[in-house]
Structure formats: C-alpha cells, structure tokens
Design a protein that fits this description.
This protein is α/β, with parallel strands linked by helices. The chain has one domain: Metallo-dependent phosphatases (Purple Acid Phosphatase, chain A, domain 2). 25% of the residues lie in helices and 25% in strands. The protein is built from six helices and twelve strands. The strands form two sheets. Strands 1, 2, 3, 10, 11 and 12 form a six-stranded mixed β-sheet that branches. A six-stranded mixed β-sheet has the order 4-5-6-7-9-8, with helices on one face. A hairpin with a 5-residue loop joins strand 11 and strand 12. The termini are far apart.
Length: 267
C-alpha cells in the first residue's frame, strides 16, 4: 500500500497564507494526499508562526507544521510551541529548548513520522543534526517506517551529506530555508526521496520574501533594516511524494511550482 504526502515549502506571511488557502485543497484532491505538511516558520509576517496562522493552516487540512531558525522570532510563537505538538521546531536545538522536534501523524492509512532538523553551516552552532537523527529515528521507527525530514539549512553540501547519510533510513528528505526551489528532486540509491530546497510559498517580487528596498539597503550599508514582507507576484512551492508504507521507501516524487513564472516580456 502506498501513502501520498504533500509538502508545502516556506510559507511567507499573509501572501503565502492566501495562496496556500487558494490552492491547497485542490492540490490535496489532485494528488489524493493522505498527509499534508507545511513549513510555517515565516507564516507570521515573515517571522515565526503563532496560533492564528497555525489555525488557518490546520483548518485547510494541514497535519503538521515544521519550523526553523525563525521559529523563535516572536514570543507568541514560542508560547504556542508549548501547547501544540503538531507545530515543530528543529530537534537539534539544545536540551531544554521548548517545543517538539518530531511528530507522528496518525493518518487513516498509516502513521507518518515528521522530523524537523536544522543545519549548522552558516547558521547557529546548535547540536549535530546527523547525530540527532541517529538518536531519534529508532524511536520513530517503533511506530512507523514512513518518515519525512525537513532539513532547514543554508548549505547545499550539508543537505546532500545528510541525505546520503540517511539514504534508506527515511522516506524523504526535503530541504527548506533558502526560499529558492531547486530542480534536483530524485530518489536516491537506497530509496530515500530528496530535494535540496522545496522553495518559497510567497511573494517573488522581493528578496526571498522581503521588500526589495530594505534588503538592498542591508547589503549597501551593512546595517540592520526593518523586515517588511513583500506582497506581489505570489507563487506556491511544494513537493508531492508517494511512499510504500511497508518499506518506507519513496516510489515517486514530483516538484510543484504554481503558477509558473511568466517568461515572456509583455509588449
């Protein structure tokens, strides 16, 4: 028996939430999704995910929300992490950090383990994502062989290294964080699906979701600038995967980007 899983990448503020609301249920129907996962660490105006945004997503049929380094940017997000196990933060933050790093979705077909990890290259020096996976995977496998990892990381090399390290041990490794979708989706030698970055669900007339003037000034003057979420040219990014529920191996993967970019200049 196969299970169908839909993952939506890095939802950015209200524009990202709006296009998710517009498209998600039709995508769930198209792919006959049994489980839906989203990365929501930027859902609250680009920083964090509070109960308000999480409720919007859960009302659409989302089963689990993953996070990343921006999970901590709003105190309301941190408060919410204490109360809802479906909203994750990366597992490999130091012991005692609030929140959960994994969640078991109890779908009608089979349970699905969702594990959230964060990279360390060019990011905060937290615990090792490789060894954290080694520690938690046996516990998750007591409940299910179907395991999806969101690796929230900057460096492509770190994501690829983790994918090869865990190939055959998990169903799918989905990269998030860079907000730029990669076209390298594939199934690795031992049956693990992989994509370096799922991409951004949000405004593309921007610098990875941020209004361009503030982003440019940050580089020009090397000073902090107020983060403001952009609004225009909104697209949805995601990945569909089909997994054999017995073996936990990925048997199909498809990258999603809607609507397509307009590649012709208007007259």
């Amino acid at each position: 028996m196969n299970i169908n899983i839909l993952f939506i990448g890095d939802i950015i503020g209200q524009p990202g939430l709006d296009i998710t609301q517009m498209w998600l249920q039709s995508l769930q129907k198209k792919y006959r999704a049994d489980v839906t996962i989203v990365n929501g660490e930027n859902a609250s105006d680009g920083k964090g995910c509070t109960e308000k945004e999480a409720k919007q997503l859960f009302d659409l049929g989302v089963n689990c929300i993953t996070g990343g380094n921006h999970t901590w940017d709003k105190h309301q997000s941190q408060d919410y992490l204490k109360r809802d196990p479906r909203v994750l933060r990366p597992l490999n933050y130091p012991k005692g950090t609030i929140g959960n790093g994994y969640y078991i979705v109890d779908s009608p077909k089979v349970k699905v383990g969702v594990l959230n990890l964060q990279g360390r290259a060019f990011m905060a020096p937290i615990d090792c994502p490789f060894r954290s996976a080694d520690w938690i995977l046996p516990r998750i496998k007591q409940e299910t062989n179907v395991i999806v990892i969101d690796i929230h990381a900057e460096a492509t090399a770190e994501k690829l290294a983790l994918a090869n390290y865990l190939d055959g041990k998990v169903s799918m490794i989905i990269g998030t964080h860079t907000h730029v979708q990669t076209s390298d989706e594939r199934i690795l030698n031992n049956g693990t699906g992989y994509i370096t970055d799922c991409g951004m669900t949000g405004p593309y007339d921007s610098v990875i979701g941020m209004k361009t003037d503030a982003a440019i000034n940050r580089f020009l003057y090397q000073t902090p600038q107020k983060y403001q979420t952009a609004t225009d040219n909104v697209h949805l990014c995601g990945v569909f995967l089909k997994v054999d529920s017995s073996s936990g191996k990925c048997v199909e993967i498809e990258r999603i980007f809607i609507p397509e970019f307009d590649k012709k200049k208007s007259e």
